[in-house]
Design brief:
Layout (H helix, E strand, L loop, with lengths): L6 H16 L15 E6 L2 E5 L4 E4 H14 L3 H17 L7
Antiparallel strand pairs: 1-2, 2-3
Length: about 100
């Protein structure tokens, strides 16, 4: 059967398989994909979020995308580093020069 191919599917399938392996005596229910929307960065401080219930564009989608990204990171140290990198690039821009 055809399924969307992106990280959202892989994450949900990984969680499903982990639950199946952790409970070998219980027969697994069929996998069900739950579409949680799509984020896309479109440059500057803009992004697009599309879901069947809500759509956002601009700065709100940009910060929503970054918040979702930070929530998926494992360690607090990594979250802190990425968060401060985002703030740094917001305040001072990105250095795109070649050295």
């Amino acid at each position: 059967y055809q399924r969307r191919v992106h990280g959202q599917v892989a994450a949900q399938e990984g969680t499903y398989l982990a639950n199946c392996f952790n409970k070998p005596d219980k027969p697994p229910a069929p996998f069900r994909y739950n579409h949680m929307g799509n984020f896309a960065y479109v440059g500057g401080n803009d992004a697009v979020y599309d879901h069947k219930l809500v759509s956002m564009t601009g700065g709100a989608a940009f910060w929503g995308r970054n918040t979702a990204y930070l929530s998926k990171l494992c360690s607090w140290e990594r979250k802190k580093d990425i968060f401060f990198d985002l703030l740094w690039s917001k305040w001072f821009g990105r250095d795109l020069s070649q050295k």
